[in-house]
Backbone:
């Protein structure tokens, strides 16, 4: 048994998350690292309870076999959430603290914005949490701050470049970009050569460029209307959703409408999540497309000379952060891209490091955002495609509450009391709702993994209801279906789930199969995914058609597809519960994150900047200045 | 001799800063900490070369005597800078590595924005630098990112509150602010009691408030025109200087003109620099005034319920970051407020910790931004007033180049070649320019400290020129005047300066005297400072008069004054070199940072958001992805 395992004393009823988190003294993170056979040169400490594990660990352990790879998804949730993060943590506490397995939990870093808004933190819940929860939810080791800095440096560079190009001749621009040195000689630097190559100019001496080549090189000729790059901030600031910039007198009337997204919506976050090495990150950041030239050609960060600087800003962010669960098992926290306009999964490098650290017979459990129709689908078709990693088991988290909703129960609204139907036995409602679970099971099984259903038990659930879900899960082809109570009991409440996951991993009979190949058209790929939703057809808006044509022409049709769809239904309509079918899926627009490496069709409108309520969480948050402890964080 | 001292091999001519920085392998920061008698529980590591020293060290060493306290200012500089940071570092390398003294250098954290713009880094230069210079210039330990987050959370809260107040009745607002709990009971939380107290309401049960009291409590009634709080970003983004926000459809037409400053211009940065403890920081952050009610009363962060959350975001930022010089002496990097709209000095807590760590006979050398007319003046009258610390010696850095400019030499422009006059001997020009040095000496002496002039020698300076400066310095009352060459030789080049500073510290004969007492009027304080500039009178704009009246009425006239004036002249006119006198100083506007604790009159227009040039530094910055090393940073 691992030396870092900590026995929990559980109380009933379950105390508040923060009280549970504060009741446990975390181990020094070097002890957690040591149990993973990490030496001090493998990681950088960030205080006593966090450490960044260096990417070089992957190279060092290259010859070692990987552990089992488990992804946790969920059924279509209610607005209250069905405990996917909590189950991910609880399962790992069971594997590590009760089943004597090497295990690493891989989680996303939450955005700091919602911590002060409505939602509160995201470190799990009850007796299945990552600690210290305030450090998990705030700043962590600065990765999101680095993304904000890099994203906004690029944004500033775009507008400033348009400004400078508008006031300078080709020759003046060129002279500034390639100034003479002390000896009067001009030269191109490294990043300029990548632009020259793209333009088909093979000359190496700036003096030899023709006036036409000078113009092509020095003038990006950005079409302001085409700019897709927005600024970001890790704060819920709704007043920045749409703004006009450049109204200062020095900017000479060069105003432009744009806006801010929350930082985790930055393409740089998606790059961080999908990258596989420092050199791969350098390349992806350099090839991010922020808009087109007036001639319609895509313009990249490297065209602007900024890909290297962005990489420098992100060089520490690429190392995942090691933390611990309440029961002393290790956690890697890394990246947290949006689950709609991006792929909603934690990072590839964290999973890779974790798989080497646990080694053969160990377990890496990673969470996929939203319902399995989105989270698990993107995990398979985008993340595993780029990582080359193969999962053996997919967990699908279900609750009686959500299944009743899918069976026709009344609407569930956050902040309002639950309807009577959700807290008293109603087996028929549960049975009817299992149609949602069944489709998630069959969709997920199609990837070639074994599916284990985790029924996250609430105190109001009846035996008959729970048993109905188990029956439905087996009928739909689940490898196993297990009732668990990790919220109330920690790892002990997920021991059966841990055993089931272990068996599922050890008994894989099929290879990994993607839902679609990359070499078909963008539309064919969208169709393959839509079919998995139950759609019978697709309707493209004019704008979507235009964008698909443009991206195809620009040579980006080989990329995987990342659907931006509501998580509250298989369909585009959040009110369609259960397993809708025969509907026409509307594609409103199509965008792309070329550096991250995917095309994202928009099914409906996605908010990328949350707001604050009248009484935000921050009213309750304070520092006890005597102890230095955070209070009121939920 | 300290065990961490590292012998430098100096090359001639002096290589590029980054090459010198990269030629030295830094010690693990725990070794530097150990030499200061810090145990691992006194600090948190942030990687191998940075550590945050915990504030608790001050309490633990409370009984211990302080070391000598030395402030480094400069004469009125050229736009190229006269090497104040470099001299600060070089002096410490001399004291620590050659004179066997306990020494700590206290420096400001530079803004990350200019690192990618024109300026490059700020870690010193030549053989007097802080290393690793990339970590010094980028992210550091996240303090500026924390400031950005806190500043912008407050900004978002202000606009959102106006929005919610505009759409809700008093009763609805109140019900949302004090919602009933599960038992149907309402209660005020801690932060609400501070607002109730301010409003003179002593009731503790929300149900007992009269409708009039409900209105007063729940409705801040912010006057949008009065909002002084701007958003910030640590990026040179000129297009954010003036913007219109709230143009999204959900914000229902509640548009407003505002803008972004660079993060170091945030009042929260000034708070960080001037705070003395966690509880003091909590108090300052809570009493920051962001605007007025429509009735003209100041509204604070605590009125908005957010002071605690801001403190939580800043809780780690209050701990200074320990780094090292090229010669292995310790450096504390902490806070970097603007030197015009704020006071331009590093933090009080870093200086306090440092003074205890070096103990009696040790030295703490801290830098004051801009010329001594601004930097040293604010160091004395604002920083020392709040800290209660007493400096013994003030260093004034001078260069032959700047003195020639003051003597009537041609204009010095960054990026353009220096005029012939600056690189050939011209003793008369130097002698004429010493009038500037002389006024800085007499102004600084008036505080009761001994003044040592550090003549930062360039290779083009002649013996006669250098000697003219020494003579002028003594004539003006300097304790000593020393020629130094730390840029070319590291600490060895500043040994004489170190000896002079030591003697100056050991021979103080006078107590510290402030330039003005706090209990006179705002105008009288402004006059006292203007007189030290050589002004014969002051002209207040109508706006300035209005603001002074308002701040006086609001009860803020007891605060010290922080002049926002150009550093390029004693006067308001940057072209007036030497020691102008008899001019009328115009006060265009008067603003206040109530939480930080000063009133700042604006003498002219101050840019609080820099821009990027056509070819920013970022073109040269990249990551060597094989070694993980930053290249091209200057």
Residues:
């Amino acid at each position: 048994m691992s030396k870092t395992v900590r026995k929990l004393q559980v109380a009933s009823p379950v105390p508040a998350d923060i009280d549970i988190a504060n009741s446990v003294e975390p181990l020094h993170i070097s002890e957690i690292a040591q149990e993973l056979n990490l030496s001090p040169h493998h990681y950088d400490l960030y205080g006593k309870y966090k450490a960044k594990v260096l990417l070089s660990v992957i190279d060092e352990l290259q010859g070692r076999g990987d552990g089992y790879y488990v992804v946790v998804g969920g059924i279509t949730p209610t607005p209250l959430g069905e405990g996917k993060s909590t189950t991910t943590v609880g399962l790992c506490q069971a594997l590590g603290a009760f089943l004597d397995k090497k295990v690493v939990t891989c989680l996303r870093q939450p955005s700091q914005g919602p911590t002060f808004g409505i939602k509160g933190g995201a470190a799990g819940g009850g007796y299945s949490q990552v600690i210290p929860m305030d450090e998990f939810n705030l700043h962590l080791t600065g990765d999101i701050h680095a993304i904000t800095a890099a994203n906004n440096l690029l944004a500033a560079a775009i507008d400033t470049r348009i400004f400078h190009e508008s006031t300078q001749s080709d020759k003046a621009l060129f002279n500034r970009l390639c100034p003479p040195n002390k000896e009067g000689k001009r030269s191109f630097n490294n990043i300029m050569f990548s632009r020259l190559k793209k333009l088909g100019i093979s000359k190496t001496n700036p003096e030899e460029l023709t006036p036409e080549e000078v113009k092509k090189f020095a003038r990006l000729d950005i079409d302001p209307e085409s700019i897709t790059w927005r600024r970001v901030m890790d704060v819920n600031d709704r007043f920045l959703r749409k703004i006009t910039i450049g109204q200062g007198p020095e900017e000479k009337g060069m105003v432009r409408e744009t806006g801010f997204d929350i930082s985790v919506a930055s393409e740089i976050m998606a790059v961080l999540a999908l990258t596989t090495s420092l050199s791969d990150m350098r390349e992806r950041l350099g090839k991010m497309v922020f808009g087109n030239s007036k001639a319609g050609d895509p313009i990249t960060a490297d065209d602007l000379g900024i890909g290297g600087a962005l990489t420098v800003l992100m060089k520490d962010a690429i190392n995942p952060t090691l933390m611990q669960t309440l029961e002393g098992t290790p956690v890697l926290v890394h990246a947290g891209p949006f689950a709609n306009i991006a792929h909603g999964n934690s990072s590839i490098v964290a999973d890779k490091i974790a798989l080497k650290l646990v080694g053969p017979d160990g377990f890496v459990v990673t969470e996929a955002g939203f319902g399995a129709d989105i989270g698990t689908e993107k995990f398979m078709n985008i993340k595993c495609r780029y990582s080359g990693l193969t999962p053996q088991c997919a967990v699908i988290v279900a609750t009686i509450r959500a299944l009743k909703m899918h069976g026709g129960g009344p609407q569930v609204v956050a902040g309002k009391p639950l309807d009577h139907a959700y807290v008293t036995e109603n087996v028929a409602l549960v049975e009817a709702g299992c149609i949602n679970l069944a489709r998630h099971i069959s969709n997920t099984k199609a990837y070639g993994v074994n599916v284990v259903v985790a029924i996250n038990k609430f105190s109001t659930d009846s035996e008959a209801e729970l048993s109905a879900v188990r029956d439905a899960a087996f009928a739909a082809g689940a490898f196993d279906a297990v009732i668990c109570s990790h919220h109330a009991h920690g790892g002990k409440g997920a021991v059966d789930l841990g055993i089931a996951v272990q068996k599922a991993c050890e008994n894989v009979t099929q290879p990994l199969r993607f839902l679609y190949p990359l070499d078909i058209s963008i539309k064919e790929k969208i169709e393959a995914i839509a079919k998995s939703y139950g759609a019978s057809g697709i309707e493209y808006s004019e704008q979507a058609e235009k964008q698909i044509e443009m991206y195809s022409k620009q040579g980006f049709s080989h990329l995987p597809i990342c659907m931006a769809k509501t998580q509250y239904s298989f369909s585009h309509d959040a009110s369609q519960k259960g397993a809708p079918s025969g509907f026409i899926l509307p594609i409103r627009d199509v965008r792309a994150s070329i550096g991250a490496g995917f095309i994202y069709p928009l099914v409906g409108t996605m908010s990328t900047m949350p707001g604050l309520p009248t009484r935000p969480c921050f009213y309750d948050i304070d520092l006890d200045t005597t102890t230095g402890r955070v209070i009121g964080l939920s």
The mean pLDDT of chain A is 96. The CA atoms of residues 22 and 627 of chain A lie 12 Å apart. Chain A touches chain B through 91 residues (CB under 8 Å). DSSP finds 21 helices and 24 strands in chain A.
